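Re: weekly structure request thread

Next one in the queue (596 aa):
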Amino acid sequence: MMLLLKAGRVVPVSRLIQAVWDQKPPFTALQQIRKAVAALRRRIPSGRELIATEPPGYRMTVAEGQVDLKVFDARVRHAQEAHAEGLLDEAVTHLKAGLDLWRGSILADAGGHVIEAAAAGWEERRIAAAEHCFDLRLARGEAGELVSELREFISAHPFRESLRGQLMLALHRSGRQAEAVEEYARLRTLLAEDLGIEPGFRLAELHVAILRGSLEPEAPRRPEVAAAQRPPAVAGAAPCTLPHDLVDFTGRKEEVRRLIEDVRANEGHPGPRVLVIDGMGGSGKTALAVHVAHLLADDYTGGQLYLDLRGFTSGEEPLSAGAALGALLGVLGVPADSMSDGVVGRMALWRATTARRRLLLILDNVAETAQLRPLLPTCPGSLVIITSRVRLPELEGSAGLSLGLLDDDDSTELMSRILGAERIATEPHAASELVRLCGNLPLALRISGARLRKRPHWTLGFLAERLRDSSRILGELESGDCSVASVLRVSYEAMPPNRRADFRLLSLHTGADLDVATAAALLGTEPRRAEETLEHLLDVHLVEQFELGRYSFHDLVRWFARTLPAADPAQGTAVPCRAAAYTLSGVSVPVTCFVP
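Done, posted below.
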């Protein structure tokens, strides 16, 4: 069974022994495995060629199309490729063909915990493919015809918030708003009674949008649920709670390559490998982390988990280490009554539970390093991907990546995927201007694309004209409950009051960038304190640095800062005077040289 599940790959003998004997294997386990393989070779035509001995185990070679799971995988891969090229119908056809191969649960009662974990993993892949298919069908305008299919999946996976969100969208688009709201209430009751938790933040946002009538029917964003709140498909097996990969994930090829190469290069690392992705709000950190996690998921047989630590979520406190450990342990099937109330006890239980699990864990939206250390798994070969708006101090075994903006080509491609290539081709110059006005920030580009889809009679040039007015640009970059200003405000409010005041004052500088001396003059302080302020703003991604010693504001960050009320209005008028005085002081020496 294991050889078929891993067809084309070497399966170590130790793994085969684990699959056969759940508990302590007998002393003759190795000999019994060898005899079983020899018997298989005799029974299967050309068995010796099909089952090859390759250290440290065996490899089964099968022809294309002989194993349904391989055919399913190929169909999913072809669907992803078709979707990347914008061929939605072809992608849906591949996904439907792959899903039609399933006739119920695989490997039922076929073995112990290893086989059970493999079966749970394949079931998660089936559900992920179904979610992808539903996403694409929603994107191409289907709605009412999806309701019965979604209800069937939900009956088998009642806690799956992503499926419930898709059902709510389908009902809403079919004009059945009341039923969509009822679905949310039904799930909320189920989660409260069975697990004692609330639906995830994204699903709650979708619920509010439906109630307010602010949901964009043409191009909704399926909620990325706080997946660690879902229970595992099989308690103690290998749950996958990753959000679905973005349908229109665009660009980041170099970043994806770097992250995957780092993982491959450190496969023999004695502890968990930790990747830290930081960047300004709205830069696409979570999207990149989830995309990379899906590419690597097959290598992590102990489970693939996601947890939003709510470090920068408006109106919510960051998730404590104790609460985070409770959520993660619950996903792995640990009963709540077996968890201690204290962080130390939960941390010990988490380490014991993960000691032999090769996990992939995304810790999203982290506020500070203190949230992280208790959550790191202990099994060698595990992978932890961390995202944060702040640059975090180095963690043991970690590698960092500061995520910048999209380049012009990828920004235009993202707009093309949102709006369609024809619409971009019709107004190429306006599209380029929109990219520039959005500052190549993925969030701003997505909001602009969503507004244009919501207003099909708007031209790209019309929206660009509205964005040219710096006094209203942030008001224009708002769609439903999502806005660039609200995202930046969370980062701003996380700073102490003195840093906020400095941030507001520095944003009044009219130059393209500034150095420490200029900042000191603007703030009316000594250079050392000005440098500390600039470095803090750099660490929280509210200023950028493209050249050593020079700091600059992203245009949208600058406009946001200038909308903030000053604690002392007189400070705002003093800044230009300080800047002028500093500029004149810089030219006074050469003037006196030539004009004594």
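The radius of gyration is 27 Å. Residues 217-236, 568-574, 583-596 have pLDDT under 50 and may be disordered.
Next request, please.
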